[in-house]
Amino acid sequence: MSGKVVFLDRASLKARVRSPDFASSYVEFDKTGADEIVERLQGATVAITNKVPLRADTLQQLPDLKMIAVAATGYDVIDIPACQARGIRVANIRNYAVHTVPEHAFALILALRRNLLAYRQDVESGVWQRSPQFCFFDHPIGDLHGATLGILGEGVLGQGTARVAEQGFGMRVLFADHTPPKRDDVIFTPFEQVLEEADVLSLHCPLTADTRNIIGAKELRRMKPTALLINTARGGLVDEAALIQALDEGWIAGAGFDVLTTEPPTQGHPLLDVRRPNFILTPHVAWASDGAMQFLADQLIDNIEAWQRGTPQNLVI
Predict the structure, then answer these.
(1) Exactly one of 163, 263, 276, 309 is catalytic; which is it?
(2) Which terminal Cβ of the chain has fewer Cβ within 10 Å, N or C?
(3) For 106, how many CA atoms within 13 A lie in the half-sphere containing its CB?
(4) Comparing C-alpha atoms, which of 17, 21, 57 is closest to residue 37?
(5) In terms of CATH, what superfamily is 3-96+291-309?
C-alpha cells in the first residue's frame, strides 16, 4: 500500500524526521491553522499532528484518512470517538521522555526548594556584596532528603520521577489514588492524605474529563504552607486562578510549571504576570531534550510504518 502522509506542524519537533518507507508522497508544513487543515489533508492516508486538533467536523471531510500519528504522548487534540466511528487508527508516542521530564521536574523542585531565584536576585541587587558575613540566610533552604514527594500519575513519567526521588535524593514517595484505572504494581495512598503530607506535589497524569482542574482551591488549601506544586504534565490539571490566589495568600510555598491551559499563552495570561522568586514558568520544554526529540521522531515514523505493515504498535484505538 502506498499513500500520502502529511505532517501538519513539523516546526513543533526539532529533530530529523525520515520519510515513511511506503509513502507515495510525504509533505511537511511548519504549522497549520484551523482553516487550513482540511485542504492540506485532502487525499492523505496518514496525518501527523502534535498540537493541531482533529475534531469530528474535520474528520468527516477527510474520507481518505486511515491513520493519525500523534507526535506526542498526550492525544487530547484528537476526537477519539469520531475516529472510532470512522475506523481511523490513532497511535501516540511512548516512553520517549522517561528521563528528560523527571530531570526537568527536579530542576524546578531544586530551584524552588533551595530558593535559587531569590538568592540570585539578591546577588544581582547587591545584597550579598553588602553583607557583613561571607553568606546570608534571607530565604529558607529545604533539603529533599527525607522529604515527601506526592505524585499524581502512575505511568512511566510518574514512576521515573519516583525513582529519581527515592534513589537520588532519599525521598519518601506517595502515589495518589485519584482516578481510575489503578495498577497492581503501584501502592496508592488516598488523594487527600497525599495533599496533606506532600512536601512536593508533582503532576504526571493525562488531561481528561476526570483530571481537568483536579488541583483547585480546595486541594491547594489542603496542602502544607511549605509545600511546592510542580506541573510538567498538562496545564488544564490546575485551576490557574486558584494557583495565583494560593501563591498570593501563602497557601503553598511555591510552584514550578512547564505547561499552561492555553499554549502558547496570549498576552494578558494571568500566570505571565506572576513575577516572584517562588514561581517558575518554562515554555513546555520538559520533554524537549535533543535525545528525547530524536527518539520521538524515530518512533513516530516507526508507528506509521508498523501500521502500514499490518502490525500496528502504540495504538490508542
Answers:
(1) 263
(2) N
(3) 21
(4) 57
(5) NAD(P)-binding Rossmann-like Domain (3.40.50.720)
**pLDDT tens track for 71-124:** 998 898 999 999 999 999 999 999 999 999 999 999 999 999 999 999 999 999
In the numeric block, the cell 477527510 is attached to 62
234 included as an active-site residue: yes
Q: In Å, how far are 62, 117, 118, 173, 265 from 137, measured between CA atoms?
A: 63, 14, 11, 29, 36
Catalytic position from the list 10, 104, 204, 234:
234
Contact yes or no for 228/255 (Cβ under 8 A)? yes
| CATH number of this structure's domain 100-281, picked from the four choices 3.40.50.720, 3.40.50.1970, 3.40.50.300, 3.40.50.2000 | 3.40.50.720
**Does pTM top 0.70 for this prediction?**
yes
DSSP state at residue 19: P
Contacts of 212 (CB under 8 A, 6+ apart): 236, 237
Tell which residue, 155, 173, 177, has the closest CA to residue 164.
173
Q: Residue with C-alpha cell 533552604?
A: 141
Is 130 known to be catalytic?
no
Residue 284 annotated among the catalytic residues of the structure: yes
